Amino acid sequence: MKYLKMVGLAALAAGALMAFVGVGTASATTLCENNQTTGCTTHVNAGTEIDFSAEDSVALKGPLGIIIATCTESTVKGTTENTGTDGSPGAAVTGTITSLTFGNCGGRDVTANTATTGTMSISHNAGTDNATVTSNDTTVTIKTIPSGLGIPETCNYLTANTDIGTLTGKVEAGAVVAPTFDIAASIPTETAGCPNGTWSGHYIYTGTTPFIASD
Fold it and tell me: pLDDT, tens digit, for every residue of 134-157?
């Protein structure tokens, strides 16, 4: 079964790796490595890898909340293409989703198209340390869907500037710590007879340098 064509993780997610949206009204989105109370003096550079891994099970569902697959392993990885510091009003941090994986999916075969993993966009949510992540052109395939569900055995899903979730920045004791990525996405199908699906899960940052969203 084919599943998502994604990140734009931010893309990942987003995406998702980003894998991001949530456009500011006056300035560009940036990913900041230091607490904004002291001013954002260190930005995530272009070419930085942003990696997230699922902390618990990830659910892929069809209509009426019917679970198509539950995966105990999932990763979203992306690479930033800009810093977002060019000053363009509402500009997002964009990047490429370099990897999207699903594992231990209860007998289902869930894979992302490795030829075109898609892009991500990260946009700051004003007044917070968070950002919205969108994904574009990421394809995911789900195979061996039970025939009892009355849908094809293989379904492909494709993101199209799809809002896939929220990147939450965290500050503890005045220091920026690892962000989290909560995916709650509705993904349209591109396979006749297959229902549109949803993807939900809680991901934690596994990269080397934590950050928060800023503008």
Answer: 999 999 999 877 666 677 888 899
Which residues is 138 bridged to in the sheet?
A: 5
Beta carbons of 147 and 155 less than 8 angstroms apart: no
- Band the pLDDT of 122: cuts 50, 70, 90: very high
Three-state DSSP state, 115: coil
pLDDT tens digits along 75-121: 999 999 987 655 555 688 999 999 999 999 988 899 998 877 899 99
Would residue 39 be called left, alpha or beta, if left means φ above 0 and alpha means ψ between -120 and 50 degrees? Answer: left
Distance CA 100, CA 84 (A): 24
User: DSSP label at 63?
Assistant: G
CA–CA separation, 33 and 50 (whole Å): 13
Whole-Å CA distances, 119 to 95, 99, 137: 6, 11, 7
CB within 8 Å of 192: residues ≥ 6 apart: 152
Type of residue at 15: G
Q: How many CB atoms lie within 10 A of CB 114?
A: 11
- Per DSSP, helices labelled H in the chain are none
Is 14 within 8 Å of 134 (Cβ atoms)? yes
Q: What is the pTM of this model?
A: 0.81
